UniProtKB/TrEMBL annotation:
Keyword match Lyase: yes
Protein name (database record): cysteine-S-conjugate beta-lyase
Pfam families reported in the protein's UniProt record: Cys_Met_Meta_PP (PF01053)
Annotated source species: Paenibacillus gansuensis
Transmembrane segments: none
Signal peptide: none
Cofactor section: pyridoxal 5'-phosphate
Keywords, ordered alphabetically: Amino-acid biosynthesis, Lyase, Methionine biosynthesis, Pyridoxal phosphate
UniProt KW Amino-acid biosynthesis keyword: yes
EC number: 4.4.1.13
Family named by the database record: Belongs to the trans-sulfuration enzymes family.
């Protein structure tokens, strides 16, 4: 999309970094992949000279390789690997204290919504949800006890676009911590730290892992001070990723560019096809002309991603499509080699009260299609038959 030469160069370097990330050759043996250090603890040869890692909750070489890998890809200072995306998000939000207030994008991931409204609320951490595409709403939400802003762009599942730099600059001027859930774009397309964000978060279960076979979360801090604080939380809460899963994630991430590029080309075709169907009430994809916030998205991201949402008009019709499709997995989740069709109203956003859900544009007929690596003509033919009748 962006033919700017610097950006081209950046993408080229990124593709090379994906493969040559520093841990691709084992320093001790020359092995062609990071060894799995399946160990919970490490021997102290002498007490005067302790080993680099002493206990795997606090640090493990396999997990460390993954943490350094994601930090490099995001252009941050320190990376952290967690047992799930929610473990990454919840642990990072422990940077807040009782009495603090956080401003959060209103169509945030359903699990994050649940964490904020039913768990952190009990810890006296207060949340205001705003439409973050409307800067006036963000400014109006500021209170004397506001400490942080949580962004997600494109948002899930209506792919609303928030101006990252605008919000990050404003937050900085009020001494607020900024966190951004970068799951949908991945660092291949969007590097929020370069735009002023303090902590980037991932459900690595999705595009980074890419194969629907590992549950994991990642976080990257923009500076050493935040890195130190998050390290204390990761170790203190014990929300770490296990070593086998760390290895699987590294394996999946190496093909991130190849997978994203292919899926994205297909997603664009699917979005264009859907937009031509008179029976589809609405199509949400940042790559479509007329998508609100498309200009902002193109300024801050290098691509549009592989998730397309569309409204088939009613809950009955959505259920019919889910019943009749033959190729995609009908499931919660996204970002895998296989296409995944999900029904936000009854799956990812089931925890959200119906009125709140409607207010946020998540209609009863809304479906979310995560385009995988199948042949796009087959996927469209399959969807065509599922929509008919
Ligand atoms: C899936 C997801 C999460 C939660 O991640 P888990 O790995 O399922 O815990 C958070 N944010 C977004 C945008 C997601 O899609």
């Amino acid at each position: 999309m962006n033919k700017d030469q610097d950006l081209d160069k950046k993408q080229r370097k990124f593709a090379t970094d994906l493969i040559h990330f520093g841990g691709e050759i084992d320093k001790a043996t020359g092995a062609s992949s990071v060894p799995i250090y399946q160990a919970s603890t490490f021997h102290h040869e002498s007490l005067a000279n302790p080993p680099q890692h002493d206990y795997s909750r606090s640090g493990n070489p396999t997990r460390q390789a993954l943490e350094d890998y994601i930090a490099k890809l995001e252009g941050g200072v320190r990376g952290f690997a967690f047992a799930s995306g929610m473990a990454a998000i919840s642990t990072s939000l422990m940077l807040l204290s009782a009495g603090d207030h956080i401003i959060v994008t209103e169509d945030v991931y359903g699990g994050t919504y649940r964490l904020l409204t039913s768990i952190l609320s009990r810890m006296n951490i207060e949340t205001t949800f705003v439409d973050m595409t409307d800067f006036a709403q963000v400014q109006a939400a500021l209170k004397p006890n506001t400490k942080a802003v949580f962004l997600e762009t494109p948002s899930n599942p209506t792919l609303k676009i928030t101006d990252i730099k605008l919000i990050a600059d404003w937050a900085k001027s009020h001494d607020l911590l900024t966190l951004l859930d970068n799951t949908f774009m991945t660092p291949y397309h969007q590097r929020p730290i370069e735009l002023g964000i303090d902590i980037v978060l991932h459900s690595a279960t999705k595009f980074l892992g890419g194969h629907s076979d590992v549950l994991a979360g990642l976080a990257v801090t923009a500076n050493e001070n935040l890195g130190r604080r998050l390290k204390i939380l990761q170790n203190g809460m014990g929300t770490v990723l296990g070593v086998q899963d760390s290895w699987l994630l590294i394996r999946g991430m190496k093909t991130l560019k190849a997978r994203m590029e292919y899926s994205e080309t297909s997603a664009m075709k699917l979005a264009q096809w859907l937009a031509e169907q008179p029976s589809i009430a609405k199509v949400y994809y940042p790559g479509l002309p007329g998508h609100p916030g498309r200009d902002i998205h193109e300024r801050q991201s290098l691509g549009y991603g592989a998730v397309v949402s569309f409204d088939v008009g009613s809950g009955e019709r959505a259920k019919q499509v889910l019943d009749k499709v033959k190729l995609p997995l009908v499931a919660v989740s996204l970002g895998a080699v296989e296409s995944i069709l999900s029904y936000p109203a009854m799956m990812s956003h089931a925890a959200m009260p119906r009125e709140v859900r409607h207010q946020r544009g998540i209609a009863d007929g809304l479906l979310r299609y995560s385009v995988g690596l199948e042949d796009i003509e087959d996927l469209i033919d399959d969807l065509k038959q599922a929509l008919s009748g």
